[in-house]
Design a protein that fits this description.
Elements (H helix, E strand, L loop, with lengths): L9 H15 L3 H17 L3 H12 L4 H8 L3 H32 L1
Length: 107
C-alpha cells in the first residue's frame, strides 16, 4: 500500500480540492459567524487609525508606502499600526468570539 501522506503533485492537489469541497458545506455556518464577529471587531475593538489602515491595506490593496504617503506618515509607522490592529483582531476573534457567537445563536 503506497504511503499517501506525503504525495505531491496533481494527485495531492486533486485530493485536497475534493476534501475542501466536502468540508465546505460543513463549515459554512461557522464561516458566517466568524465574518459577523470580524465585522463587529473591526467596528468596536480597534482604533479608527488601525481600522482605516487595515481597510486600505486589505480592502483597497494599497501597499504600506502608499498608505503612508496618503496619510502623511512613515511606512514603518503604517506597518506597526497594521500589525497592532491585526493582533487586536486576533485576540477579539480568539477570546471574544465564543461568548459573542453563543449570544447570537440564542437570538
Amino acid at each position: 500500500m503506497p504511503n499517501t501522506r506525503y504525495r505531491k503533485g496533481k494527485l495531492y492537489a486533486a485530493d485536497m480540492a475534493m476534501y475542501s469541497r466536502q468540508i465546505q458545506a460543513d463549515n459554512s455556518r461557522e464561516i458566517s459567524r466568524l465574518k459577523r464577529n470580524l465585522i463587529r471587531c473591526l467596528r468596536e475593538d480597534i482604533t479608527s487609525k488601525q481600522r482605516e489602515m487595515i481597510l486600505m491595506y486589505y480592502a483597497e490593496g494599497k501597499n504600506m508606502r502608499e498608505i503612508g504617503e496618503s496619510m502623511g506618515i512613515n511606512k514603518s509607522t503604517v506597518s506597526r499600526t497594521i500589525k497592532r490592529g491585526e493582533r487586536r483582531l486576533q485576540r477579539c476573534l480568539r477570546y471574544g468570539a465564543e461568548s459573542y457567537l453563543r449570544n447570537m445563536d440564542d437570538l
